[in-house]
Design a protein that fits this description.
hpI Integrase, Chain A, alpha+beta
Length: 232
């Protein structure tokens, strides 16, 4: 992609994802988080690059802290891919059709697995290691629901006003949410470790090239904030 088209993609990318804010900003953010669950979820999402729905699947036995002096290995972590169209069939094996003769289908989530390394030299890896070490072999590391994870991340760097309506907390959410953290991790892998499309695809367990091509279309210099990003 060259010329105007490439620059348009870069501007759109920065608006939606912002690039990588840098380890200093991430560390400063963790220092401000007072709730322990929020802190552990934040660090867990960042280290693993997981979706909010995937994080609760990790058990202690899947995290190999002793893999090497420089690497933590995550083994067979669940990947819940985007919803996929599945065509339906009749009992005789023929395609199921609607009244207009069109194929009948349903949308369903598809699960797979990924194994990937986390480098111990990234500044927040020690936080992750310390947390993981508190669990026994079969324990779930993040026993939270999707909504609890989103809630905890959404309240980072924000204060809920007095008398707010319980179900309306999201109107007051701060600058963080799970997918922003996932995007930060992808940008960091490109900027710091020079990950290419293939390595990004393998690390995140993506089945298509769409997301790694999106991230990979941006050169490393563009993954650093040029201006303050509005996350709303």
């Amino acid at each position: 992609m060259v010329g105007k088209n490439k620059r348009t993609i870069e501007r759109t990318f920065k608006k939606e994802y912002g690039g990588f804010c840098g380890w200093k900003h991430l560390q400063e953010t963790t220092d401000r988080i007072k709730n322990k669950d929020s802190l552990n979820i934040y660090v867990g999402l960042l280290q693993t690059g997981a979706r909010a729905m995937e994080l609760p699947s990790i058990t202690r036995r899947q995290v190999d802290l002793e893999y090497s002096d420089s690497i933590i290995m995550i083994n067979s972590m669940m990947v819940e891919k985007q919803r996929e169209r599945i065509n339906l069939f009749n009992d005789d094996g023929s395609p199921m059709l609607d009244g207009r003769g069109k194929r009948v289908y349903q949308m369903a989530s598809v699960e797979s697995e990924r194994s990937f390394p986390i480098r111990k030299d990234n500044p927040l890896a020690a936080n992750f290691e310390e947390y993981v070490e508190t669990f026994d072999d079969r324990d779930i590391l993040y026993p939270f629901t999707y909504n609890q994870i989103y809630y905890r991340i959404g309240l980072i760097d924000t204060d809920l006003p007095r008398g707010y309506y319980k179900n309306g907390w999201s109107k007051h959410k701060g600058p963080w949410w799970p997918h922003r953290i996932r995007a930060e991790r992808a940008c960091q892998l490109i900027r710091d470790y020079k990950y290419d499309l293939f390595r990004l695809k393998k690390w995140f367990g993506w089945s298509t090239s769409y997301m790694p091509e999106l991230y990979g279309s941006i050169v490393p210099q563009d993954l650093i904030y040029e201006n303050e990003v509005s996350w709303r």
